[in-house]
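Section 3.1 - Work completed
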Amino acid sequence: RKLSEAKEVADFVQEISTPETPIAIDDAAAYTIVAYTAGFDGMILPLQKSFVTVIENPALVASYVCLAKRNNPMHNYTVLNVFNLMLMREQKNFRMQRVFESENWIIYSIR
């Protein structure tokens, strides 16, 4: 069941992410999602220098962000979770729109 969820999320990530509209995703927590994608184009991952910038202010670099929901067992293994994004949103005052949601993951468009 979880593998099919990861595949569903990965398919959506591949539909929306391009180098011009990148998605921030933490492969430490979302490794199954990243593994299902065909490549890393359009993804901002922790190994990239810009990932720290994304954590501080996602709207500067990313068009989308993939977050672990509170009920997700990987929620505490990444700063890309719903709790931290809400704190960042309040501090930086950017707008988010939910574009995808599954049992354990949520993807927001960021402006």
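Second construct:
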Amino acid sequence: MRKRRMFVGERLLVSVLTRRYVRAIQSEGPNAPYADLAADAMKRLSIDGVHRLRESLKRERERWRAEGENRWADHMTSAIRDLDSRAQILDDLLR
């Protein structure tokens, strides 16, 4: 799949969605609405935007691991897996 340059609005949206994931995990932990967050991201972003969101979430997870916040990092891993599975389905449909 060919990568394209994201528009400014989509870059901003990736940043906003990353913050939403972080806030949800920090406030709700294992009860964070991963499925709702992923569904919203899939609805609002292009497939390239979804991939960039996933990379942004991975960076947050690594930052938490470096800070010793392993529980939050584990919850982020669950959120990333949910987003990955949805992105994979979309990738398969687009091919």
